[in-house]
Amino acid sequence: DVLLLECGFIAVCASPCSTAATPFAAGVSVMSFRLLAFKLLFCSGICKLASGDQKWSSFTAMNYHYWTQPLPNFVSWHSYWGGNKRLQAIGAVTFEILGPLLILFGRWGRIVAFFCFVLLIVSIYVTGNYGFFNILSCVVCLALLDDSLLLFKFPSPLENASVLQRATESLVAVLLGCVAGSFYILFSLTSVALFLKLWQKPLLEPPALCAQLYGELAPLHACNLYGLFASVTTSRYEVVIEELHLVEDTSTHPPTTRETWVELDFLYKPGDVDRRPPWLWLGHMPRLDWRLWFLPLRLARVVNLAIRDGASPAAVSAALQQGAPSLYPAWWPVLLARICRRQPEVLALLGPQRNIDLARAPCPRGLRVSLFDFRFRPPENCPLYAAFFPEGMPALTPQEIQEIEEELQNWEVGDWWMRRRHRTIDLLSIRSSPKGGADAGLAENSNES
Asked: What is the pTM of this model?
């Protein structure tokens, strides 16, 4: 999103100046996009090294990336269980750091940099679902090419213009050139502040003017720092929502009713262990599924900060069970409430369900929100416990193998994923809403939670 905002800012400020009669202003506009392409890739490479993440310094990041990224697809599964992932990590860092430097070496350097960038961006698209990021990045990189390499040209609107029109356009060209030049200076100075902040070194503090410009533009996201996959998550916890319903048990005589938990499915995020991870069409950005990937990370961050600030693990656990509002983003309780109300627009975001017809189902008696530990299921020629060793299988004794296989009894194994319940983080009752329908309300602490 911030890349889209920055592209829009450059387009609004510089592109109106870019006409055939204003070559200087047009050049400034192209240079702004080239600087953005340089910043996008170079900062992403440097962030991997400056973040201090040992997975990047040891080039084992790709052993985790494929199965812990927000929305993996089925190619992610094949990429994880095949290929030299150490070589892939080295190649990614090399492309992102050395590739942008080629932009400084004239026309042919920019051409080579363009193909390096596109190769990297296409590989990201093939092995993961990232919405419009891939196509937007490729459009930014088009600025590295010149007209002779493009298959099309936009004709000048002044080819058949009169002398008066050309004279007027020339005067406008000078004014627009000054505007575009001023914008490029502003954009460059702000980028200097970002480049220096990237290293996180006292000796590389940005000049006061650059830091001030960055501070003024930061609320607009007009000039941003990019760090694609600067740190790699080493586990995957998925939020799973379950509804409590009364069902008729016909196995007894006479038939009785019993309570059962029904899991809700989402369109794109992992859930059903037998469902193939979907490959989304280019540009599609499922916001809800994307945000749900960040929810466990948010919970972990809040808990870690609370413990660091002196809260006891028992107090943090109690806060989790009681559903402290500060733990969750503002949209989370709204989502749960509207699922309970069976709002059609929200049910459409969840998609078809395996276990229940939400549109016809009654309001649930309660909700249970749990964290599940997910991992890619190994292929048929590998033991299941290979999923526990992302960096390669160590030498195991027979006793260790037996202990691991006993642990596997707690895991649900499917065709593509394997998972186990990590913990229940919320147990909610449903209360009637004054406007009708239902709302999700916190239940009393339960032994299960």
From this structure: 0.82
CA 325 to CA 313: how far, in whole Å? 18
DSSP calls for 180-227:
HHHHHHHHHHHHHHHHHHHTT-GGGPPPHHHHHHHHHHGGGTSS----
CA gap 24, 18 in Å, rounded = 8
Q: Is 298 found in the same domain as 355?
A: yes
The verdict on 212 and 264 lying in the same domain is no
In this structure, the answer to whether residues 353 and 431 fall within a common structural domain is yes
Nearest to 376 by CA among 62, 81, 25: 81
Contacts for 193 with CB less than 8 Å, ≥ 6 apart: 206, 207, 210, 211, 213, 214
Angle at which helices 163-198 and 208-217 pack, to 10 degrees? 110
User: How many structural domains comprise the chain?
Assistant: 2
Residues 6+ apart with CB under 8 A from 79: 66, 127
Residue 225 resides in a domain: no
Indicate whether 193 and 296 sit together in one domain: no
Residue 439: strand pairing partners: 431
Residue 97 and residue 39 in contact, taking contact as beta carbons nearer than 8 Å: no
Q: What are the pLDDT digits (tens) for 5-64?
A: 888 888 877 665 555 556 666 777 788 889 889 989 998 898 898 888 899 999 999 999
CB atoms within 10 A of CB 34: 18
Read off the DSSP letter of residue 430: E
Three-class secondary structure of residue 6 per DSSP: helix
Provide the domain limits for residue 209: 2-220
For residues 374 and 237, give the distance between their C-alpha atoms in angstroms, rounded to a whole number: 6
Identify the domain boundary among 174, 192, 220.
220
**In a domain? residue 44:** yes
Contact (Cβ atoms closer than 8 angstroms) between residue 36 and residue 224: no
Residues 152 and 246 in one domain: no
In a domain, 227, yes or no: no
